[in-house]
Amino acid sequence: MERHRLPLLLLSTVICAVSAMENAAEPPIIEPLIRNFTNKNLQVIPGHDGNVTVTTLVMEGNLITLSEEDRQALATYPALQELHLEGNMITGVPAKYFSVLPRLRVLSLSRNNLSSLDPEAFAGLDFLTELDLSQNLLMSLPAQLRGLKDLQMLILKDNPWNCSCPLLSTIKDMNAANVSIGGPQVICASPAEQAGKSLLGATALCFPSPTPTVNIDPETPTAPAQTQQSQSSTAMLMTTLSTSQNRSSEGACARQHMEVHSVCCRLGANHLYTHRVRHQGAVLVQALPQLQTSATAGG
């Protein structure tokens, strides 16, 4: 009997050892992909232990300032796609601060005290599709936002925007790239002539519609200034002569012509032609010496 017990004991020992090894090899329990630390009064973003892949981190309603310690903590979430930092104590965003999150698609900085953004604040976020900067103290935007090629939504409402041409140039280009400027209350606070206008509507002052181009026939010569003056003199002459069509005496015609020249001051070719047609050339011959004298004096 004892000879049979020994193999059984060995077999039982092996089975227990294999079972223990299998239990040790079991993967840890998978935690949720969302980490939510809302309203925890945290001053620093908690780091991640790396056991699970966190895709969404919610830090709303804390005391986060985006310190270097916060950036190091964010680097422990390399697969993060959404970062919510609403309602914290953030006043600025340093250059390339979020570049440790290369897969980030949604970034919300709403309801902070943001008053400035480094020109390279969002550098490295090549997959960012939504950026929420609403309810801050921003007056301008870095032109480098144009480099966010995947951006689809830019939320800007409730900021004291300075709608000068640099800002409006950035907004115009992003709007042309089909980026939606979200929020119904995107209103200009300054300068004075733009205050109260919508951010998109204010672009009209800096980027008015192009003036229509008038095509001029190259074969049509441009009338010189003297010709235009002569045409004006012709019109005045016709008006004056129309009031005295019944005067036929040469003296009366000459006097009338001199009256016209006291106004026109210059004799032109159109003027002479009109006078000739009006009087059939009869009186003009006698009047020419006087007209020439008048034209010389007017010149």
Automatic annotation (TrEMBL):
SUPFAM superfamilies: L domain-like (SSF52058). The keyword Chaperone does not apply. InterPro entries: Leu-rich_rpt, Leu-rich_rpt_typical-subtyp, LRR_dom_sf, LRR_TM_domain-containing. GO terms for cellular component: plasma membrane. Pfam families: LRR_8. PANTHER family: ANTIGEN BSP, PUTATIVE-RELATED, CHAOPTIN-RELATED. This is SLIT and NTRK-like protein 6 isoform X2. It comes from Parambassis ranga. The gene is LOC114453010.
